[in-house]
Every structure is written in C-alpha cells, then in structure tokens.
Amino acid sequence: MKYLKLLLSFALVIGIFFVLNTKLGDLPPLGKFLNPQSGIWQNETNESVTGEIRIPGLSDKVTVHYDEHMIPHVFAQNEHDLYKAQGYLTAKHRLWQLEFQTHAAAGRLSEIFGEGALNYDRTERRRGMGYGADQAIAYMEQYDTETLGYVQDYADGVNAYIDQLDPADYPVEYKLLDYQPESWSPKKTALLLMYMTKMLAGGDEDLEYTNVLRILGKDNFNLLFPDFFDITDPVIPKNTDWSFIDVPQTELPESQAVLDTIQETIEKPNPANGSNNWAISGAKSSTGNPILANDPHLGLNLPAIWFVMQLSTPEHNAFGATIPGALAVISGFNQHIAWGETNATRDVIDWYKVEFNEDRTKYKYDGDWKDVTVRVEDIKIKGRENYKDSVLYTHHGPVVFDKNFKSDNELEGYAMKWIGHQGGNNQKTFIELNKAKNYNDYVSALKYWNAPAQNFVFASTEGDIALWIQGKFANKWEGQGKFLMDGSNPENDWQSYIPQEFNAHTKNPERGFVSSANQHPVDENYPFFVFNDGYETYRNRVINDFFNSKEKISVQDFKDLHNNNHNLKAAELVPYMLENMDASSLTEDERIVYEEMKAWKFNNDIDEVGPSIWRQWYGRLYNMTWDEFDIEDTAMAAPYAYQTIYLLKNHGAHELMDIVETEDKKETAKDLFLLAFKAAAKRLKEIKEEKGDYTWLKYKATYAGHLLQALPAFSRFDIPIGGDRNIVNATSEDHGPSWRMIVEMTSPPTAIGIYPGGQSGNPGSQYYDNFIDDWAAGNYYNLNFMQTNEATKAVIGTQTLTPASND
Amino acid sequence: MTKNITNFTATIILAVILSLFLPWWSVMTAALATSLFIPLKKTAVFFVPFLAILVFWAGHSFVLSSANDFILAKQISQLLKIGGNPYLLILITGVIGGLAAGIAAIFGKQLTLLNSKK
User: Which option is the CATH number for A35-357+416-566+738-807: 3.30.70.100, 3.60.20.10, 3.40.190.10, 3.40.50.300?
Assistant: First the structure.
C-alpha cells in the first residue's frame, strides 16, 4: 500500500513538473512563465538609464544620455565604438524584435511556432532571402571590408548584450514562446536589409498579368494597365531635361510572352507600404531655411519598426530613426544635411519559364543545356524533424515554382530574377549619409544603393534641396518583364543596367520644392522603359498642389500637410456617381445614407461618416466592376484605383462593366453605382447595429498590433486618427505614417518627430507605446539635437559604456 | 502547531535561497526537503508548503509588479484570458507555485513513511 502511495505521489510530482515546465498549445509553460524569480514578473520593470556597463571590444568610453522620450544620445570616440554601442543599445531596448524580424526574413519561423509556419518559411527561402543575404555578405567580403567591419562591430555590440543577459531578463516574448535568443552575426544585418527589400521591392504582378493577357486579350490589357495614366505628376518634374543621357534604351527583340495558366503565386508585400517626403528651398520657406519632411507608411506594429537615436563621434553627429538590425540613422539629419526616403517601386522582379532535362540537373538556354545549381534549405521545425527543400537555381535566379511548390509540372518551373538577389552594399549608403556634409557627399553615398529603390530626399544647411531616385535598374526593352518570359531565350535576359548617373534626379528645381509619394518616377520623356508598378496617383497631387498654391511655407504648413485628410480619390468619383446614379429607387434607409454622402466634404476625419460610406461603396463597386477577375484557381490582378475610376467615368459601357452572373442583363457603370450603393447601405446599417454608428473612427478602428499576429494583450486598439490609403495622412486600419519627421535647416538643424509606438520593446514598460496618443493627435516632439557630450537639463539619465578588460 | 509554523518558515527560507541557484522548480525542491526533515501530519503535509510558497510567490510578484504600476501584469492577465486583473494573476502565480510545492511535499511524506516503518 505504501509503495503504491509512494509511486502515486511520485507520478504526481512528475506530472505537475511536466505540466508547468512545458508549453501546451498556446499556453506557455506556466511554472517557468509565472515564477517571480525568472518568469514574466522580472519583465515588470522600467528602463535602466544610469550606471556603468562594461563592454568587451570597446576601444574608448561611450556616453549615452537618455532624454524624457527614452531616446539615447550616443557620444562615441570613433565609428567602431559607435556601431558597437548602437548594437548594444538596440539589443537592450528591442532584442526580441531585432531577432524575430531576421528569423522571419530567413524563413525560420517554424523553429519557433512549429509546423504551421512551414509554408511561410518555404516561401521565404524559395524567394531567395537567405541567398540574397549571402550575396550581400560575399560582396562586402570581397569589395568593402571596412563596411563589413562596422557590421561586425554592431554584431559584437548586440552579442555583448545577449552574453550578459540572465534568462530571467529575456524579453517577455521569449518566455511566452519558450525559446532563447541566439548570437547575432553580420548575416543577420544582411537578412534585415533583405527583409526591407522584400517589403518594399518584393511585389510584382507579372504572373497575374500573364493570365489577364491570356484571358482578356491585348487590347483590354493595354486599356486596363497603361504604362502611364492620362495624368501624371511624377517625382521628377515633367519639364526635366534628359538630354545628358547618352545611353539608349535596349532595343526591342522579337519576344513573345509565355501565355501559361498560373494557378497561384507567392504572397506579396502589403500594397499600402508607401511613404511621403518633400523639401522646400530657402526661397519658398517662411524662415529662409530649407525644410524637409519624411513619413514612411509601413505596418503599425508594436514594437514599432523604428528606434530613434542620436549617433555621434567627434567627426559627425547624426540623429533620426534607425531600424533594429541596420547600422546608422535611416531617416534623419546631421549638422549639415537632412534626408529621408520613400519607396521608388519599379518592376525589379521578372519571371522566366524554365525547361529542365529529365533528371532536372540542366535547363534549356540558348539552344543548349545549362547546369542547374541546388541550394538545400534545411528548415528546423519545433517538435518535428527538419524539412529539407531543394531549391534549383538558374542564371536567372531561384526556380520558385516547380513540381515541389505550387505547381505540378514535372519538368518545368518559373525562375525569379530579382534585384534583391544581387548582393549590393546598401549598408554603406546609410553609414556615408550619416557623415555627409553637402550635396556631393549625398550623391556619392547613394551610389552604393541597389534595392529597394528609394526616392532619397535631401536638404542642406548650404541651401540645396534635391531628390534622387536611387536603385539598380535594368535597362529593359519596351515592355520587358510585364509578363512571364521564355527563360531559354537570351534576348529576354536583362541586357544591361541603367548607368547610375542616369537615374532620374532633380536638384534645386525652379518650382522651389521636391516631393515624392510613390507616384510615377518620371513622365514619358525619360529615355528608359518604366512600366507602371502600381504607382500612387493621389497623395502626390495633393502634396504638389499644396506647394504650388502657396508662396511661402512654414513648419506649421508641413505639420498640416502630414495630417491632411483630404480624400482626392473620393472627390474625383463621388460627385460623378451621385450625378449619374438613378436614385429614384432608394428606400428610406438608403436615402439617409445618400444624403450623408452628399453632405460629405471629402475629408477623412474621425467624426465623419462619409469616409465609411465611401469605403463601402467604392469597395463594392470595385469588386462588381472587376468580377471578371475572380476566377477559381487562376491568379489575377485587377486594375489600379486610378484606372478603375477613369474607366468608370469614361468607358461606362465597356463590356467588362457587365456583371457576369446576371446573364439576362448587361450592366453599365451607372447600374453598378446603384447596385454597389444599395449593398453598401445594407452593410452600413449592420455596422450601425453592431457598433452604434459608422463614423470613420469606429469603422476604421486603427490599431497598432504586436508583431506576434497582433496579440491583443500587447497591442493598442481603436486609435483615434483619420486618414486612409491614398490620403497624405495615409493611416488605414493597420498601416500609416510609421515615423513623421520635419527638419528645418538652421545651423545646426532644428527637428521634430514622432512615431506610433515607443522606444522600449518591453510591453511592461511605460515607454512601450507612449507616443501613440500624441501621434494620433498630430503632435510632434522636439528632437533634442545635443551638440556636445555635456548632460543638459533634458537628460534624465546617463549611462557609460566602458571597455571591459579581457580578464 | 509549532511544527507547522517551523515547516512554513523553513520552506519559505529554503525556497528563497534555492531560487538563487535553481529554476522555478526550486520551490518543489524546498518543499520536498522540509517535508523530509520537518515532517507534518494529515492535510498539513500539503497545505503548509502550499501556503508557504503561495505567500512567497504571490508576495514577490506583488512587490515586483506594484513597483511598475502592474503594467505587464494587466497585459499578461489579458493574455491568459483571466480578465486583465493583475491581482488575480498574482493569486494564480501563488497557487501554481503552492501546488507544485504541496505535491512535492506529499511525495516527501511518502518517502519518510517508507523509512520510519521499515
């Protein structure tokens, strides 16, 4: 009996130990997770901002002053120490995010989440994310060991933090998911840059367009997807003189698109990724100093994508937004210049159909067989054996789609040619920009930048403003890369690149301002082929009209423009619809919505109902218009908003306006207006019943979601901010101005900035999301640009990083 | 009664000391040890170490959390779907520690019985 009891109680002990020490489903291991000595209670802390920390490898003392916003102002004696300190401090405040983003980039999420993430991981690996990162490291090893040295310094800094970290101090997400941080390496910085490249230059519709062309024919395709819309207000002003370009566009070969049926494609980045930037000249500025602004529109995540820092050595002093994982300031200013980026999307991904030999060791090219190389992707999966995926590589790039992935063709595949695979030296651009003193330094810093192509805006205390569209662009023949191409024909390869000095740019233009908002880079007169890669057509016009309409511009005007909620898209279609729709059949309920719409002044403010009605109405109209594009097992891409609205207004009786389902009736645009309106009114009534009303505030319900699928406990919901996509204040549900900065080029520059988040990555910190309310209200913080190492009144704490002796 | 108090105090002290070296299961070790050296009777076998560790863990959590205005405790409480109440999370933390300790003590008691009545 007593042995039975003993055995029983022993089993109980083992049982309770197992249950409390193991992650069960979504539930973290509760003993580990909740014990006060090493569990989450240890994360219930504020930031430490004082004291002395010993860091191995530092050559001199580094002083870090924190201000009230928890922004570190770093004073190092040389660049090596500076980037060690940046790595250390970034890890200190954002370790989990820092590592998680590179795991996501590398296709390593299955390691953390298990089998559910396998498809994601395979996609990222087949996209060549790790391959691209390897190329970037190889490039630096061969051509630029200096930059690689800084990248290694950063890694050493991160590792110095990880090495002195007690498991009790691991960020709370590690405890929740029950895993540990690993060492940082230069490859991870390269992966982070690939992550940005994918986010901003990782989308294309070539395969979808191939299906559209095959199904709807060439005439329709050209009508729906023109290279240029009927209006363009490009990044580089229209009247720019291109006569200095003496390299011709690649000659058009006899090439035919390969009209395959493509069932599904890989996931694309969010089309709401975009940005605004602009700068005005001294002549246009109310103070006589140039002023520059930048607001990148990215996912509104927590921890926020940006981490603001001041990074200085005796030789330079930079301030602005950094990205955890990358060195130096990305969008910011120093004592002499200010700079910022918007995405300059271009068709930098092309697809090639590849034909293999019998054992898939060779592929057809130029009438011969060429060797395939194989990259084995070994994917670790939590709680299961590894998954090995062999990805075949051609000279084009990885064969993403083949019999093992989203295709059943035994001996064929689609290879991806992507500028992201070409190992550039992007990191150097930022390191150099941080030190640049004038226009020439800025231009030479940009030369290293391959991808993602960016519109780099510039202003200097010397009084120059400029904007370069920088990236490595293929010099394509007319139409190259719109559709799937035959990979065996050498004429379909990218023949050459546009020489960097012929990238479109403008310096001190007559109009007194430069601006970009992801619109068309240039007009038709630019001598190289530029296909419409989903260019914005609304924010740019609102911004440029604003600057053209005012003689003198102040910082206050910049703030107003950042927070401008004018919905130009709606303003261009709603009056037409109201005028042309037959409203006689509206019910009483529908009539109320109709009157509300009529009263709307096209501002997406939070207390308006107009934006919600517009969203419903246009959304349904768009889907009804392009119902032809909803075909089972066929990847399709419907036209962009601008062209859709143009067609609704100018080609209202086009065959595609018809709703396919209603066989006995031929709908025109006007019929669709009414049908969509009625459907919208019905849904709005439901929303009113669910939420009380359908003001834009409730309808949009903007949120900043935690990186772990917006885990509610660590996210912020119902943030009161207006705007939407295609509006200068580009805040949609979960996307928007992820960093707002305005810099006046006084000497030294005076700057304000804010972002929707907080400096700390710890959900338990008061600095985790403390900027959000001010951000939503359109407020800014003064960025305290410290000129010397002396602590001022604004400093709330000073930490000293000192070289650790080697014993 | 005094034995209960002695065991209670010893369990807490031992748990605090062991927690400096061992992971969370240090509380199980502590309760096991005190159950061997300060044996108790009947329900006290379980409840004394249970209460000791409950007080230890809940108290420690409370001290840590109140210093930071319970910011994270509220979030974790929401995360574990217990309504966002930080005090409930503190109580649950205590109960979990106590449960582990109590069960370890029962096992310890069975071990002592094995010895004494041989």
Answer: 3.60.20.10
